[in-house]
Amino acid sequence: MAKKSIVARDEKRKAMIQQYAAKRAELKELGDYEGLAKLPRNSSPTRWKNRCVETHRPRGYMRQFGLSRISFRDHASKGEIPGVTKSSW
To answer: Cα separation of 36 and 38, whole Å?
Structure first.
């Protein structure tokens, strides 16, 4: 489980990205890079980190499922993810 402060910081970044999305797109369209530089750093989408929905783990994130590899394995072994089975040969 990730620290609550880091999860809260990431949520704050996500909110700021949505807040400045329209302005950022407008400045990019105009080619105003000085204006873009004046926007807050956390309003850039590249600063947002993909995290597991359950554990908020940043590493081993599987984009297709929104889970970390550990959570994915737990759910897959319980049969809770449709279409995913353990391979055997």
So the answer is: 5
